Amino acid sequence: MNKHIRKIFGGVTLLVSVSLSVLVQAQGLTDVLNQARATREAETALYQQRAGEYNAMSDADKQAAMQRINQQRGAIQTQVDAKTQQYSDNDLKINQMNTELRDKAGQLGVGEVFGLARQVAGDSVSPMEQSLINAQYSTEADNRISFLEQIANSERVLTTAQLERLWFEISREMTSTGQVSKYSGVVVEPNGTPRSTEVVRIGPFTASADGEFLAYIPELGRLNIMPRQPEPLLPDVVALQNASSGYVAAIVDSTRGVLLNMYVERPTFIERIVNGEKEINFTILAVGAAGTVPFIFQLIYLIFARMGVSAQMRNMQQPKSNNALGRVLLAFKGDGSQIEDEAEVAELRISEAVMREVPKLERFQPLLRLVVAAGPLLGLIGTVVGMILTFQSITESGSSDPKLMANGIGTAMIATLLGLGIAVPMLFANALLSSLSRGVVQVLDEQSAGMLAEKIEKRKHG
Questions:
Q1: Which of 100, 173, 270, 349 sits a CA distance of 20 to 30 A from 85?
Q2: Domain limits of the chain?
């Protein structure tokens, strides 16, 4: 009977499997119906065949087959029970070991090696990502920033290889901080085009390539060429890049690029003038130019006048009209048609000749004194106007930001600087012209007085 039931169960199972296969492979309802009908006929034929074989067996054969099947089923059931017990024992042991593992991992992760390693990795991510040194190692296949983030966020027990890698990355960062390294890297042009070149890095402070300073971009992990370069510092950069060994003077920014960026962004003198009160600033410059041009002209004139007077003093017997002293001598001696008998007349002629030369020697000096006085006053006007505009902008914005005040005050002070920058040189220029002119006038007075005294003396002894 059991055999008959097994046959029926096997037939049903085969029917279900075949039906599922037919459902998967059929392309339409008609095909499914035809295949189901064929399958049913095959199942019916198989069932009749097995039923005929079973009915043809004798009772003794049926009983022997039943005993054999029961023995096989008992053996299989024994094996199933043994495997089930072994599976239960193994599952219990696995759960117990997992519990122990979690407990030990939790103890280590809270206060010992692994917890400390995760903390160090998390604390090191930001400094290393912002460090200039990262540009040298960011192109590695296994990026160190990604590795540190993985360690910091890991909930598993760290392996020995991970702990060694963490120690290596920290040690490499510390070592690279005190090294001057030259390597082949990628830099970004101001227009955004990357190119490969030789980079010289001084610890985490400064980097240069092709004689230009580089700035670090943490988001890209690369270096870019600064759009504006500090021209006075570039010769040291070139010398450092061309050096192969020894000691070389170099520029080191201890703030890791902050001071260098401030130095580069600092406006030039022309930019300060343009960004300030332009009308007043250019007026001050125009006043300075109005004093500088006459000063240069008069300085050249006085130099040649002193040279002419010095040459005439070496030959007093032959006065020439191309210098001030020669013209005074000619005025004293006259043209030879009249003889000066009166000393008073001779003195008047000499005084007239000297006074004729003095305006040429002292010209433009009042203009320079005017520039000296007007420069600071114009600068003060520019400063006052700049301060008024600064306080007005603060009032309109409603903010007392020190940066806004400092910028406005610095711009206003440019006018004062220009005024003083014009007044002080013009003061020295006026003193120079006065000294030169007084020297020439003093020579004229000395020589004219000497000639007058000589004439009076000759007349007394005549």
A1: 100
A2: 2-81, 114-254, 278-461
